[in-house]
Amino acid sequence: MGEAGSEAVDEAVTSATGTTSFRFRPVGPGRFFVAAFLSLWLCGWLAGEVFALWALWRILGALLTGGEGPLPVALFLLVWLSFWTLGGAAALRELLRALWSEDRLTVAADGEVERQVQRGPFRRRRALSGREIRRFQVRGAGAWGGPLVAELSGRSLEITRLGSLRERQEAAEQLNRRLGLRPVAEDPAEDPGQAQSRIPAVPALPVGWQESTPSFGSPLLVPDQALRRQQRRVMGLVNLVLWGLLALLLRGGPAGPGFWALGIPLALLALAGGWGQLWLAFGRLEWRLEPRVLVLQRRFGQRLRTLGEARALELVERVDSDGDRSYRLQALRPPDPPLRVDDHATDPTPLRHLGAWLAQRAHVPFDDRVPSEEQRRQQRRDEMERLRQQLVGSGRLGRWAARQLERAEAAGAEAAQRRPDT
Question: 262 and 216, same structural domain?
């Protein structure tokens, strides 16, 4: 969404008690176009939701009273309504975010931080300990920048995407000053050419992992058991729906309409869901931390199988055909393919902390191969220079295109100097 012509909507207010509050609200005219589109879409969504609920009610009523009804249609409507309702809830949230939203960050005199998120009439609060926050920073580049995030031990927490880029940057500077935190560029552990984009690797377990210390043998890195219990409950609800739909389909018998066409895929899904439930209950992949060796093993009940051993770690960036970046922490065991430790779709910071923790605990080398922003800029400059040389050597038209490219680069550099560094 555009931010041109926005007014100052971020307010930093310090009360007499020493409490500082930052308020972020939506800005820019682009949000009104988004809100208009979402409003029209939600009108159609509501009509579809009401019609599907009415049709499902009539079909289920006929089935439950002993009558006949199109059972495959009822099953399809149940699945369709689930996704349709989730889509409508997400659209409504974005509509409220564009028109009626506010993010507030409050820093108490003792350094405790409270984050309050408001979307329409709905509010939620979350308290953060100032001791676990390492720094605040604005991520991303471009005209509108990225979100304001708080870097914690082993993970990142998004604070807000509201407000203008300048407001988020100024808030990050004031928060770092207020809590006595160093911004990334001032961290002495960083190389000056990489300081603007890379968070130093701190040995810490990110969310989703925990260390298990058996009564004998080496310590283990295992999935967080509390998270696994939540996953089991969610999978149990999914299985309840799948097996309930399968039982409802079997009730009509093989002669029922759509029995084989719908029954076989539904039975396969139910079996896959049942296996997922068993795996979450009795199985897991875990890493055994030996001196200078990482051992990946699969556990299912009392059975244990070793899958591979590695003596080094690396964090790599992967780019798909659309240019989207994702990150993987992997354990090296040449000449065999690496073993996957963990993935993250958008942020390498948790993987960086996990890699540092594993390197410290198992005394293995850890290589962070994710390019810094300075390295990315240098790569883009090298690519543009190669393109310019190709154009110059391609003839008169190519030389003209090369001159236009140089002018565009000069204009972009001048514009970058006028706006704040992201």
Answer: yes
Burial class (CB in 10 A: 0-12, 13-18, 19+), 38: buried
| Structural domain span for residue 303 | 209-368
* Helix or strand run (H / E) with residue 412: helix 396-418
What would the pLDDT profile of 81-137 be if each residue is shown by its tens digit? Answer: 888 999 999 999 999 988 989 999 888 877 788 889 989 888 888 887 777 788 888
Give residues with Cβ within 8 angstroms of 406, minimum separation 6. 388
Report residue 140's pLDDT band, with 50, 70 and 90 as the boundaries.
low
Range with the poorest average pLDDT among 100-104, 146-150, 273-277, 331-335:
146-150
Q: Which DSSP string do the residues of 192-221 spell out, in sequence order?
A: TTTTTT---------TTEEEE--SSS--EE
271-281 per-position pLDDT tens digit: 999 999 999 99
Which residue, among 384, 382, 357, has the nearest Cα to 371 in the 3D structure?
382
49 in Cβ contact with 81 (< 8 Å): yes
Query: 252 and 354 share a domain?
Result: yes
Q: Whole-angstrom Cα distance, residue 117 to residue 124?
A: 5
Q: Based on the fold, state whether residues 174 and 274 are members of the same structural domain.
A: no
Instruction: Please tell me the distance from the alpha carbon of residue 192 to that of residue 196, in angstroms, as a whole number.
Output: 8
Strand positions, DSSP E, 291-346: 293-300, 303-310, 312-319, 325-333, 336-344
For residue 77, count CB atoms less than 10 angstroms from its CB and return exposed for 0-12, middle for 13-18, buried for 19 or more: buried
Whether 298 is covered by a domain: the verdict is yes
- How many separate domains does the chain show? 3
Task: Tell me, yes or no, whether 324 and 355 share the same domain.
Answer: yes
Which strands form 303-310's sheet, in the order they lie side by side? Answer: 209-212, 220-223, 283-290, 293-300, 303-310
**For 44-48, 157-161, 225-229, which range has the lowest pLDDT when averaged over its residues?**
157-161
Residue 195 contacts residue 142 (beta carbons within 8 Å): no
Q: Is residue 42 part of a domain?
A: no
